[in-house]
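Today's session is about reading a structure prediction critically. Students often jump straight to the picture, but the first step is always the sequence itself: look for stretches that repeat, for charged clusters, for runs of hydrophobic residues. Only then move on to the predicted structure, which in these notes is written as discrete structure tokens rather than atom positions. Here is the chain we will use throughout the hour.
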Amino acid sequence: MYVYNHKLIQQIKAHLSNGGVIAYPTESCYGLGCDPFNYHAINKIIRIKGRSKTKGLIVIAGKLEQLNTLIQPLPASSKTELALYWPGFYSLILKVTRKVPRNLIGAHRKIAVRVTQHRAVQQLCRELQQPLVSTSANKTGCKPIKSYRECLRQFGKQVLVIPGLIGLNQKPSTIIDWESKKILRK
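Below is the predicted structure for this chain, in token form.
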């Protein structure tokens, strides 16, 4: 696991606050991320990936509290049940607040969020004091990128590539609609 130093964290904070996009290691591949409240940065990710604007993006956090401005308040019983999934490799579809940019959720009324088990991402979110957009680092239809070097090669200066190791998961996170409990991606 990579431990992020103070200098790198400050560089990432400045980059994100200026509407920049980062590539960072997650549980199964490198992910593209940005501030989930920065409309223009979200559009950059959509453009870089060649992704449909109707599709939503996942937001990843180091702890549940970092999602409070994105998702509607949950009853205590739901929070207890969430402990069965998080931290973990499950992205749950939950109702959004009015603060969420439309381009983050695409044509949907809900958002996919995850409290990660990846220690480096937990640290990154904790140090940045915010959640991050998390979509696989690749052009739509291509294989997700698994290494720092490949991110540099494919994205160049379009994104700030963060060093580190991806987790051991071979597939993307499981996505579950929280209300219906329907598995949308396994």
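Discussion point for the tutorial: The two ends are 26 Å apart (CA to CA).
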